[in-house]
Each structure stands twice: as structure tokens, then as C-alpha cells.
Amino acid sequence: MKRTCKTCDHYDCVGNCLCTDYNCPFRTYAVKREREAPACPAWKLDRHAFKSAFLDSLRKAREKHPVFLDVWPKAEDAEAYLDTAEIHKLDIGKKESTQLHSILFSEVFEFLAEVARGDFNAALAEAGDVIAVLYRALNGECKQEDKQ
Question: Tell me: the pLDDT tens digits for 88-137?
Fold first, then answer.
């Protein structure tokens, strides 16, 4: 997926850039932009484009790997998953390049723990947390001085 107006959250259905970011050269309300035009500096991933990428990946994965898992996670593994999540959380406050890794894997292991426990609602909530981390990473959401 390319960073274009088509994949930007500021792009409306009739071709207008509705960006209100002061860094955007097209910040005037409703500036006409081509769908394939390169994204402005204020690009933000559109949730529909994110969903489309997910659905495309899901279709490809199901075609390539018709059998998803041979063995389902066991309930007795839930505590080990939570322990691993806690280990990753310890690294979250550090200002190192592993911070995104730690946040993502912490959420993934919390998801695995709930799957192992058989708690669908909690697993679904944790899956939402994983997706939120992925979405925010794609948008480059971090402190501006760290973003280089």
C-alpha cells in the first residue's frame, strides 16, 4: 500500500483533501486531489484502507494455508503467555528501538493468554489492542523529536 491521497484519512469520496493539519500544503478545506497523488506530510492511514489491506491479507492467507493451526493453545499455557507479556511490558518505558517490539509483543501475548483460557470476549478485546498498535505504528504515532 502506498501513501497516496486514496489511502489517507483526510480524503473524501469526491476527491477533496480535507486535511486540517497546518503542515499540509493542501490544508485549505476541500482542495481537489487525484486519488493516486503522493500523500502530503500530514498523511494518516484511512481505516477503510487498513481494513481493505487486512481483508486482502486474510484472503491470501486462507488460500496459501487452508489449515491454520494443527494444535490450539492449551489453558495451562495461559500463565506463561501472561508472564511473557509482563516481560515485554518492562521494556516499554525504555527509549530504545525495541519499544514498538515490546508494546506489540506484550499485546500479542495477552491475546494468546485469553485464547488459551478460552475467553472469547477478552481475546477479541486483546485482538483489538494488537490491531490498534499496528495501526498506530503505520501512522508513525510517536513523539515528534523521536520520529526521524
Answer: 887 776 666 578 888 899 999 999 999 999 998 899 899 999 999 998 88
Longest pairwise C-alpha distance within the chain: 57
Stated pTM of the model? 0.68
The CA dihedral of 61, 63, 67, 68, to the nearest 10 degrees, is 10
User: How much is the CA Rg of the chain, to the nearest whole Å?
Assistant: 19
- Tell me the helices (H) and strands (E) count for the chain, helix number first: 4, 2
Cα gap 108→86, rounded to integer Å: 11
- How many Cα atoms sit within 13 Å of 126 on the Cβ side? 24
